[in-house]
Structure formats: C-alpha cells, structure tokens
Design goal:
Elements (H helix, E strand, L loop, with lengths): L1 E5 L4 E5 L7 E6 L2 E5 L5 E6 L2 H4 L19
Antiparallel strand pairs: 1-2, 2-5, 3-4, 4-5
Length: about 70
C-alpha cells in the first residue's frame, strides 16, 4: 500500500494494489474508489485532501510490515 499526496492538485491517492484500475466510482463529492477488472478495490482518490483530512499527522497501529518514508 502506498499513500501519495500531490500538492499541486491537493489530492491524496491511496494505492491499495499494484493492479490496474478499470473502473472508478465516486462515492462522495471528491472521493473516488478505483476497482480492477474483477471488481476488487485497488485505490482511493481524495480530492481537496487538506480540507477533508488532517495531513499533518499519520498514525500507524499494529501494521505487520516495514514503513518506508520518502521525502
């Protein structure tokens, strides 16, 4: 899973899978879910993310993997 923030568009994309998206559904204004060809969720796109989320703080609880921080 990868979280990508794009400051130029103020959007946050949560990439849940390496599979390609074949369908996008808007579930709320500015919140889109991407699905693969089998209908499995592969990503979440949040427009105007800084207005919807507190991007200054990220807490991970009991994640069974390594965390990579890229600046």
């Amino acid at each position: 899973m990868t979280l990508n923030y794009y400051s130029d568009t103020d959007s946050l994309y949560i990439d849940l899978s390496s599979k390609d998206s074949s369908e996008t559904r808007e579930i709320s204004p500015g919140i889109n879910l991407d699905y693969d060809e089998k209908g499995e969720l592969v990503g979440i796109d949040i427009d105007n993310a800084s207005k919807k989320l507190d991007l200054k703080d990220l807490t991970l609880n009991h994640i069974p993997t390594r965390v990579h921080i890229l600046a």
